[in-house]
């Protein structure tokens, strides 16, 4: 976010000021009330140091740091439950995790406020979420085993640590043999039987007894690379993805103790005079193993955690004693030092061999090219000389790589909206980069210096109270003449307006131009002007820049978005050309009424699929250029994040093919489906697989419907069979969990319901298109006494014997 070309920006950069800060020792909790001592309705603010940015010939003051003050009663020591923002669902996650009070609006049902967390809640969050669920769960992934690669959310199905030993796993998570098959077959399903943990704890205890000074140094390093980071980062809630790499330093330190286990075994086997050492190692080691296991099991039931921890402690004693006696026996009762060393080395080496055998396939990235291929697919979804708006870092970096390193589509101007509010980045847009011309942003560099035009409120001003509330105003004129007018502060600096009375705008359309340059198709009903209303009460500089670029472009260059951007009110004018969404002077209509998948999802209140308005000709041509990230190569592993990207590609092929078939272009539809089938091996990306909110299976059902639409019955049935297999496998798992571990089932109830809905959606698709399913659907056969009784039981109606 910082252009580090001057000392002040360097300080801001090194201080990571763009990320804000979290309270560590004393601060407000997440439901704290703002302070307003004088009762004027204005929040009391704490003023900090002045901030500066580099101007043309001087440093410009942008204002002092200001932070809101909170009621003293809402300030706490050691505030762990602190983030009041719900942008990333943090506040809601706090409330759900800690069972805090949630006050809802009686009309809408929306949460309007939360109950204050107690000190006990802060301690609970620190241990159960920050220490256990983050640090210790990641630690156990490496040295005990991993359940699967789904992002953990606190339930018993996704991303937990396991050992592969029933006595340890079942009390904590339920019977793992009954997990959905797609998760048991997941390459990140790693069972290490806690052997690396046992070796590490043995090395730790041995170092403690043999060299306390070395132990203190090593332990301090482990602490500061692990638990100290937990304290300092004060994690607020769910992250966009797993953050296990944060604690990699602690994992390295534990590996030192694993290495010392070889020496420990040799010494234990050769010790003849110090019999107490062996006993101490077993007692202390078992105790440490118990503590590590129970600290890693705080999110489960207390009895389950204790049972698992006791089993782990016993396992430590058994393994260490057995290996020690084997080494002693092989080394002639501890007299042959060389043989003891060789035996200990060989036995201990079996553990990293096991780790490699279990974990290599889900760590090998040598054949996986999802990021650059997906970037190419985005770029190839754009017409020549396009402007492409992207959102965030992970959305943008692969695109930059594709252009700068591989030289792909250097005619496209990529604009990262996350940087679009910063003056130095805006000024870069004015110049040509690669083969992409510069962009007119209307305002001069001086007009966007410092805090100028950084935040504009929308509302009637005193001078313009008589404006027609229903009128639409020319976007270019408002941006240039109204927001571009010179407004000075008390020091004579141009700060620009901070309020505008306009929220409705239009962009004129040259119909001949948009038809000639391919912005619209000849069959489109082209608007004479693109009119839209901003639905917010304010706009930020990045949004203003986006509006400026749209206004000045005047339909000369294609404008695309990597996501269906609707925050500024023109979402109904976006149309897919592939993975990207093009701004068009047309009121788009989504073809979801032609898709049983979409209609069934909406009927069951599950929203809809990703099917949006599209340009069939452009999509069909663009998809021919798509790459698949190595998914066509046998045995390549794709983790959950990669699978989501591949599912987006699979979905766009299914959508395009289905719509082509609806338009009577069956041959073109089949070609696209064949390309997808050749590009994505079902062994790498199954048609059906357990995922969060059944997103994976939704895409599979959509692909099956596309095959049905194209008349490919056998292939449609194959896809449907794969999806149904996973749906049934999930159903069996949820049923067993509900019966055997009802308290664990509670966190999976929503997933169970969604899975049932997916089954109904798949049924609806098959009954619509498949002749075999239509023939089987005989109402006269379905309405039987047994069927009626089953239906009555499902809704809780008790039927008397006489009625039966």
UniProtKB/TrEMBL annotation:
Keywords: Membrane, Transmembrane, Transmembrane helix
Gene3D superfamilies xref list: Tetratricopeptide repeat domain (1.25.40.10)
Keyword Membrane set for record: yes
Matching InterPro entries: GT117_domain-containing, TPR-like_helical_dom_sf
Coiled-coil residues: none
Transmembrane domains' residue ranges: 192-209, 216-233, 245-269, 281-299, 305-327, 339-356
Superkingdom assignment: Bacteria
PANTHER family, A to Z: TRANSMEMBRANE PROTEIN 260 (PTHR16214)
UniProt protein name: Tetratricopeptide repeat protein
